[in-house]
Amino acid sequence: MILTNSPQRWGFASRLQHWTMAGLLILQWFAGEYDDVFGGSSFHVSLGIGLVFLLVVRLGWRFYGGVPDDSPTAPRWESAIAKITVWAWYLLLLALPFTGLAYRHARDRDTSFFGLFNFPRLVSADRDFAHQLEDVHEWLGWVAVGLLVLHILAALKHQFIDRDGMLRRMWSGEAR
Questions:
Q1: Averaged pLDDT for residues 145-169
Q2: For residue 15, what are the contacts with CB-CB under 8 A and spacing of at least 6?
Q3: What is the C-alpha separation between 152 and 145, in angstroms, rounded?
Q4: 3-state secondary structure string, the chain?
Q5: Taking the model in full, what pTM does it have?
Q6: Tell me: the pLDDT tens digits for 45-81?
Q7: CB 112 within 8 A of CB 42
Q8: What is the C-alpha separation between 107 and 142, in angstroms, rounded?
Q9: Which candidate among 22, 27, 74, 166 keeps its CA 20 to 30 Å from the CA of 50?
Q10: Are 23 and 85 in contact, with CB atoms under 8 Å apart?
Q11: CA-to-CA distance for 94 and 88, rounded, in angstroms?
Q12: Phi, psi (rounded to 5 degrees) for 124
């Protein structure tokens, strides 16, 4: 098992981070949309805080381990869109939890991380601002859903149209 990335493949650590965060983000979305099923909003909130910590680890690993080279057969525009999309994900994954935390704080609610500690307040209580933050947070959530759909469509394009092994490379770590 190759832990680190190489120019030809994603290492195990990167693939584990990718698929773990993908699963947790899907769970996160459902926990936000159907919080009554998950016992209220505390699970959604705690999971969001946890995802920020995972994102910091993931970004650190990305800078430490680098990323594999782009497919040599991919057009430049496609590689550029892929890079923009990756960084859009990272920005979105930072903006979502911070707007969610700010929303809770503007509603004058404490924010616990699985009951272990309360997250420091980001903003003062302000009901009007809370409504605006709630709208922004929900809008960003739907942007994430749209980005996920595009991400999946791009993976399927690579798998079935380009047949370049991109999906296999991200799943199993096989070299190009």
A1: 90
A2: 170, 171, 173
A3: 11
A4: CCCCCCCCCCCHHHHHHHHHHHHHHHHHHHHHHCCCCCCCCHHHHHHHHHHHHHHHHHHHHHHHHCCCCCCCCCCHHHHHHHHHHHHHHHHHHHHHHHHHHHHHHHCCCCCECCCCCECCCCCCCCHHHHHHHHHHHHHHHHHHHHHHHHHHHHHHHHHHHHCCCHHHHHHHCCCC
A5: 0.89
A6: 999 999 999 999 999 999 988 898 887 788 999 999 9
A7: yes
A8: 22
A9: 166
A10: no
A11: 10
A12: -80, 160
Structure tokens at 35: 């919080």
Q: In this structure, what token pair is assigned to residue 3?
A: 């832990």
User: Tokens 């959604």, residue?
Assistant: 44
Asked if 93 and 100 count as a contact pair (C-beta separation under 8 A), the reply is no
- The residue to which tokens 């505390």 are assigned: 42
